[in-house]
Amino acid sequence: MDKCRGSSGILIIGAGLSGIVAATRLLQNNFKNVQILEAEDRIGGRIHTIPFADNVIDVGAQWCHGMQRNCVYEMVKDQDILHPTGDYYSTMKMVRSNKELVPHEVGSTMHDIVAGSMPSGPHPVVGSSGTHLAENFWRRIEAELPHVDRTLAREALDSFAKHESSIVGADNLFEVSVREHIEYHDCDGDKLLHWGTKGFQRFIRLLMNVGEDQPEDLGLLAGHVHLGKKVTRIELARPRKVILRCEDGDYFEADHVICTVSLGVLQEQHEKMFIPPLPPAKVNAIRSLNLGTVNKLFLEFEQQPLPDDWVGFYCFWLEQDLKELRKTEYSWLEGITGCHKTTCQPRLLMAWVGGSHGRHMETLSDEKVLEGLQWLFRKFLTFEVPAPKRFLRSKWFTNPNFRGSYSLRTTKADEHDTGPWDLETPVTGPDGHLGLLFAGEASSRNYFSTVHGAVEAGFREADRLIGLYSSCGPNS
Ligand SMILES: Cc1cc2nc3c(=O)[nH]c(=O)nc-3n(C[C@H](O)[C@H](O)[C@H](O)COP(=O)(O)OP(=O)(O)OC[C@H]3O[C@@H](n4cnc5c(N)ncnc54)[C@H](O)[C@@H]3O)c2cc1C
């Protein structure tokens, strides 16, 4: 029989960063009855730090992107725990599928041209990033590098576009709105600050006030987190109450619910999950924005297989090789943006695979993925890469609690005149009660897709409730 496991107060769905910061902020403001319901058997969501090789790896978020106006950086800047990654990606080798190394000077000039061809400034404000990039790139090649081999230039453009797609989380840049760069606010300063040998979970521990020697402790959140509680129904029907039903039959009552599940979960579940159905503007945003897939592949070796003076390499596919690849079972390798060493892990190689190829990779066995990677190494490199000692990869799309990696602004969202602001808008019950609030990275107007966006959104919704009760005190 169903059991009511709690009443009144505030329930937060999801113990990712948005849910964790919302809960800690509310508890620190004297809200006592705050509970988080989390479907997974761990906290952190798309931050997932696990032991691997010489210390830890981040299967999800890895870097703090920037310093100025970055709330994550602001919270830790006095503690000397964030470290610069350095000039990583711009020093990677560019290798063609016939094993030819692109001369550094030619490669970096083309890289600068292609990077400078991305939309910037307030114009243009219509169309896709892909169209804009291609037009600008060829115009600049004609003007600045008239004698460069056009075949090589095409390979450089494709490689950069793939890299950029994985940064914004898109299948390709033709689905990305040129407005992305206007609405997404870059935080100035180092974009690749990492957490040393502790990984991103160090930040979660700081938020919960947990020491280094208490790995299992939930600190401030002890007694406030229910793991393995998958919410299947959210009902706003009863006056001034919200009822949550879970997959295991438990149900909870609350005065307010903050929903932080990913855009992918909303896309898949919203029609069954919310009673009454969500307002049209929110459904429009859920259907028009996108949650892209970006996956990571980690290979641990006895010894680092790349030469000392290599950070990693980008794959430049010759047109004919690409045509042949697409006919084979290794076609998903087209989605590999590059392969490189990583900080604090001397024996590791890491590769990224995104978009539809990243989703396909998730359906393959570990053996098949490794076989493909070995094939790729043999295709591009003049030296041998031995079989790895250990292998691990993410599967963010397959996991029903995520259904992807991070959100992006699409051209479809432009056409449908919607964006994160429609995800952010709270939903009131029939009596006007502020019952259902939404956080999560995809609801952040200017920092969507990032951890600082998720944090900002969690604070935003906690502050909305703190503001609501500021005159009369919490109803809990
Ligand atoms: C591979 C990868 C690399 C990334 N790299 C970076 C990076 O370097 N820097 C950066 O800033 N950002 C990065 N990001 C993005 C960043 O991780 C996310 O934007 C952020 O962590 C999202 O936090 P969130 O709280 O909004 O959502 P989530 O972390 O997804 O939290 C939502 C929680 O809700 C739970 N949930 C879902 N459905 C239910 C349900 N029905 N009932 C109960 N609980 C449910 C989920 O299990 C999850 O724990 C990366 C993401 C990925 C996947």
Automatic annotation (TrEMBL):
Pfam families (alphabetical): Amino_oxidase (PF01593)
Superkingdom assignment: Eukaryota
Domain named Amine oxidase: residues: 17-466
Cited InterPro entries: Amino_oxidase (IPR002937), FAD/NAD-bd_sf (IPR036188), Flavin_monoamine_oxidase (IPR050281)
SUPFAM superfamilies registered for this protein in UniProt: FAD-linked reductases, C-terminal domain, FAD/NAD(P)-binding domain
Name of the protein this chain belongs to: Amine oxidase domain-containing protein
Source organism of this protein record: Drosophila rhopaloa (Fruit fly)
